[in-house]
Every structure is written in structure tokens, then in C-alpha cells.
Design brief:
This protein has helices at about 1-30, 50-55; strands at about 40-45, 75-80, 100, 115-125, 140-150. It has about 150 residues and is α+β, with helices and mostly antiparallel strands. Strands 1-2-3-5-4 form a 5-stranded mixed beta barrel.
């Protein structure tokens, strides 16, 4: 009975390891576990509330009261870059200059407000054309990020 239990546990550990290895391979190939293209975007972190104020968009959140947006962040002046060199990639046809950040790591960018960072992730929702309203911006799911400069350029 005990050996059967240990065998089952060993097989489960092996399956978890194989799944994790496949996810790492997918990320190395530029795909998320859901199959989305992984991109690296260089930009300036801004609180969503400040972005809304700049664009005369109200407070957001529940009934436009601002409740629930304290930990929401934007990436503005965004440019798609090479993940290693941080040099811009020629992505003609893409005019995305601001992203609404999302995902488990979104809140981790809070210390970088007002700083330039490189975010690696995938686009969850494409932007709507012709508007800078938060609800119409592309949403970038943050998989990782790193600080590039103390101030935005």
C-alpha cells in the first residue's frame, strides 16, 4: 500500500515537472501557456487614477467613485522592444502607445510609478481604435518586469 502511494506521488511530481518545463519552452518561444504571443514593452508606469485625470475620464471604479482603482496601473509612452537589448522593434501598423496592466504581477509595479520599466507579458485584449479611454486600451498581462530608468523619458 505504501509503495503504491509513493509511486503515485512520484508520477504526480514528474507530471508537474514536465508541465512546468513545457511552459518554460513556450515562453522561450514567445508564447504564453494559453498560446498568446509574448512581447516586451518599454514604457512609463502611471497610476490609472492619474491617467484618468489627464484624459478627463472620471474616477473609474464602482459607480465612478474611484473605489477599486487604487492598485490599477498603466504603461504609457509604450514601445515594443527586443527583450534582451531593449531596442525598439519595427512593428508597423501597431499604434498602441498605452496599455492597461493586468495579471497577478500588476500590483508589483507600484514602486515603479513615474519610472521607465520593461514589461514582458501578453496582450489579453486588443485596443479599440480612436479613443484613449481606459476601457478601450489594450490590456497587457504582466508576466515579469524590470526597472530601466529612474524617470520617464
Amino acid at each position: 500500500m505504501r509503495s503504491k502511494m509513493w509511486s503515485t506521488a512520484a508520477i504526480a511530481c514528474m507530471l508537474v515537472s514536465l508541465t512546468a518545463a513545457q511552459e518554460k519552452k513556450d515562453q522561450a518561444r514567445g508564447k504564453s501557456s494559453g498560446g498568446e504571443d509574448i512581447v516586451t514593452v518599454l514604457g512609463c508606469v502611471q497610476k490609472e487614477s492619474a491617467y484618468r485625470a489627464q484624459n478627463n475620464e472620471g474616477k473609474g471604479g464602482t459607480a465612478n467613485t474611484g473605489v477599486g482603482v487604487a492598485n490599477e496601473f498603466m504603461l504609457r509612452s509604450a514601445k515594443t522592444v527586443n527583450a534582451e537589448t531593449l531596442k525598439p522593434i519595427d512593428n508597423r501598423g501597431s499604434n498602441i502607445d498605452s496599455y492597461s496592466l493586468t495579471g497577478k504581477l500588476e500590483g508589483d509595479v507600484q514602486p515603479a510609478v513615474g519610472q521607465q520599466i520593461a514589461v514582458t507579458g501578453y496582450v489579453v485584449k486588443a485596443s479599440s481604435e480612436g479613443t484613449k479611454k481606459v476601457k478601450d486600451l489594450a490590456m497587457l498581462n504582466v508576466l515579469s518586469w524590470r526597472k530601466v530608468a529612474d524617470r520617464c523619458k
